Amino acid sequence: MDASKKVDLKIIIIGALGVGKTSLLHQYVHKTFYEDYRTTLGASILTKVVAVDNTPLKLQVPKETAAAWCKEKDIPYFEVSAKNNINVAEAFETLAKQALTTVRIFESYLTDSIKLTPNDKPKKSCC
């Protein structure tokens, strides 16, 4: 993978109502913690650009609730605290590194282009 190529990744935050998913996002993206939040219904998306192995990554972080999703998908689980800024950056950076590794594996199977027609004109035969 070209290190100058920007990669966009989406990270999904899961958890029960009121556990601090929005606080976690704000701590990671804006380095802020607010004591009071209104319940976020639906999706809340924040974006942050980070560099992993000299590759710029644009992380879009929507929130989603799902039971045992991490375990089912074999995705790392982190206990974090947005209020005390514990494991916030580490969690996002670990996930970004794993996602970039997966992107690189898939890109290794892709070709630059596929030609459907030959460059030369077909030769005509006579008779």
From TrEMBL:
**GO cellular component, as recorded:** late endosome; lysosome; phagocytic vesicle
User: Which keywords appear in this protein's UniProt record, sorted alphabetically?
Assistant: GTP-binding, Nucleotide-binding
The terms under GO molecular function for this entry are:
GTP binding; GTPase activity
Q: Give the UniProt record's GO annotations in the biological process aspect.
A: endosome to lysosome transport; phagosome-lysosome fusion
Per the record, the domain of life is Eukaryota
InterPro entries linked to this entry: P-loop_NTPase, Small_GTPase
**Similarity section:** Belongs to the small GTPase superfamily. Rab family.
- The entry's protein name is RAB7B, member RAS oncogene family
Organism this protein belongs to: Strix occidentalis caurina (northern spotted owl)
